[in-house]
Design brief:
The complex is a heterodimer. By secondary structure, chain A is of the alpha+beta class. Helix content of chain A is 24%, strand content 26%. Chain A is built from four helices and eleven strands. In chain A, the strands form three sheets. Chain A has a five-stranded antiparallel β-sheet with strand order 7-11-10-9-8, covered by helices on one side. A four-stranded antiparallel β-sheet of chain A has the order 1-2-6-5, with helices on one face. In chain A, strands 3-4 form a two-stranded antiparallel ribbon. In chain A, helix 1 (30-37) runs antiparallel to helix 2 (41-60). The longest helix of chain A is centred in the middle third of the chain and has 23 residues, at 136-158. Chain A is globular, with a radius of gyration of 17 Å. Chain B is mostly helical. Chain B contains three helices and no strands. In chain B, helix 1 (5-23) packs across helix 3 (73-83). Chain B is globular, with a radius of gyration of 12 Å. Classes of the chains: A alpha+beta, B mainly alpha. At the A-B interface, loops of A face helix 2 of B.
Chain lengths: 233, 93
């Protein structure tokens, strides 16, 4: 994809979009523009890119915005929709769907996850899979995929009741399409797509029986995240 | 938080330097009272890179439980200070 590109993918009940830093898009909704103005200057470009990606998903679903933000920064999609936003290096991705109890998306560029920091990301049994890669490029690929998968999963779980596990506590099993969670009552599937130098991870529950929590409150969990930073809105 | 005056400055300076290097910004843009979320271009993976660089620079291992909830640059400074040998957990915020 070029930096003017837009890609919209269907993933079952979900629509996923990825937009480049200079991609065309509709102007932001007035309420989104007002929200953007309240952001620090360093965050405005990311905010607008994320809303541009969200607009493509909403259009594909026959809906319109705005996509506002909870006090904790989490994006608030229009009623009846679940959604998640991620950005990386000027690029942005959004996953949104109807009738999906939770969704998380993460977009990461390869070559950025430090292998020396894997213990902050991986469960003890996951790190050997990365370390066993036949060469550095494959180790980086696996590390990037693992980090993106966990970030997406963290965001998906963030909308559900209960405490928020740390990334190493979100245990994943490698599958042909990405990852599935282990040790969870309600499992999640994390689907991976490689888009040039970027990896896109989308996490959704494996069943529709997961309890819903679409309120902006974060009182049940940690205020931040690994350092999980609320930069996805 | 009780931090010896003779070490407070250098560690704060070191943390700011590592952040600035990772974000390609001047160190004076990284003030102790700056919110991490307001730092230009900082995201989760960059924070992971910063934490890993700090662990290498100071030869420490940071408990990742302490990374959830960081708000300001000075919070990260305090975490690094508390992990240095001779700092008791009781002296941390």
């Amino acid at each position: 994809m070029t930096d003017t590109g837009v890609r919209v993918l269907r993933r079952g009940p979900l629509v996923v979009s990825v937009v480049g830093p200079r991609a065309w898009g509709r102007p932001p909704h007035p309420e989104e523009r007002a929200l953007c103005a309240s952001r620090s200057p360093a965050r405005r470009a990311d905010f607008l890119a994320g809303r541009r990606a969200a607009a493509f998903c909403l259009a594909e679903l026959g809906r319109s915005g705005p996509v506002l933000a909870a006090p904790d920064g989490r994006p608030l999609f229009p009623s009846g929709l679940s959604g998640s936003i991620s950005h990386s290096g000027g690029w942005a991705a959004c996953a949104a769907g109807v009738g999906v109890p939770a969704v998380g998306v993460d977009l990461e560029r390869r070559g950025r996850v430090p292998l020396a920091g894997l213990r902050h990301v991986c469960a003890p049994e996951e790190e050997p899979w990365i370390r066993a890669a036949p060469d550095e490029a494959e180790a980086d690929r696996r590390a990037t995929a693992m980090f993106a998968a966990k970030e997406a999963l963290y965001k998906a779980r963030d909308t559900l009741p209960g405490p928020r596990p740390r990334l190493p506590e979100l245990r994943l099993r490698v599958t042909p399409y990405g990852f599935t969670t282990v040790t969870e009552t309600a499992g999640f599937l994390v689907r991976m797509d490689w888009l040039g130098a970027y990896v896109l991870a989308v996490a959704v529950p494996l069943t529709a029986s997961v309890p819903d929590r679409r309120t902006p409150s974060r009182s049940a969990g940690r205020p931040g995240g690994p350092g999980r930073l609320r930069t996805d809105a | 938080m009780s931090v010896a005056p003779e070490t407070q400055g250098p560690i704060e300076e070191g943390v700011r330097e590592v952040i600035a290097e990772e974000l390609f910004c001047p160190p004076d843009q990284v003030r102790p009272d700056t919110e991490l979320a307001d730092l230009p271009g900082l995201d989760s993976v960059k924070l992971l890179r910063i934490v890993t660089a700090l662990e290498g620079r100071y030869d420490i291992g940071i408990d990742d439980e302490r990374l959830y909830g960081l708000c300001l640059v000075e919070d990260l400074v305090h975490v690094v200070e508390s992990e240095l040998p001779g700092r008791s957990p009781a002296s941390t915020p």
